[in-house]
Amino acid sequence: MQLFGSVTSPYVRRTRLLLVDVDYEFRDLAIYGADQAELARHNPTLKIPTLIDGETTLFDSRVIQRYLAAQRGQAPLSWRQENQLTVIDGANDAFVALLLAARSGLDPSQDAMIYNRHRERIRTCLDWLETAAADGAFDHWRYPAICVYCMLDWVVFRELHDMSGHRALAAVCERHGGQPGVAATDPRQAV
């Protein structure tokens, strides 16, 4: 089993946490540099993570989670959990878009529809996730908690948003910071 990705990606990190008890090869790629061609050979979307298990190649963290759950005989996620993941991914994707804009020399703080939309999505998603966290949605170390943890820790790592107004989400990070694999997958290791 091979996992292609980047140490700093929250999407890759969530997959690495699912594989914490599995023997696999991790291929840390420079996806915006020297390793673009290798990534393209394995994944036409040019996104990470990509998992190769024998003859099976999977292109997305949520697809990989479904595959691993099926391999382990675990029940599929509930619709409630799927909605939680959609909100987590909505916020995460908006944060990534703003970071990539800034790294491209653009000013994502300007008053432009695309940036305004991403900022609004971040606000509404974080508010929704805060309520879900306060209601205990992420109390147990299951895939939704893993995903919200990885996103929030990445946002703090990249200094993308002031999370001080989200106490329930901060509590999720505190609660799960010592889970198996969290320290070993910390994106700060890549810096």
Please give the structural blueprint.
Elements: E1 2-5, H1 10-18, E2 25-28, H2 36-42, E3 50-53, E4 56-58, H3 61-71, H4 79-103, H5 113-134, H6 143-158, H7 167-176
Parallel strand pairs: 1-2
Antiparallel strand pairs: 1-3, 3-4
Helix pairs in contact: 1-3, 1-6, 4-5, 4-6, 5-7, 6-7
Structure characterization notes:
With 191 residues, the chain is α+β, with helices and mostly antiparallel strands. The chain is 52% helix and 8% strand. It has 7 helices and 4 strands, in the order E-H-E-H-E-E-H-H-H-H-H. It has a 4-stranded mixed β-sheet with strand order 2-1-3-4, covered by helices on one side. The protein is globular and about 45 Å long. The two termini are 26 Å apart. The mean pLDDT is 97.
Rg, Cα atoms, Å: 16 Å
Mean model confidence by pLDDT: 97
Estimate percent helicity. 40-55%
Q: Describe the biggest sheet? A: 4 strands, mixed
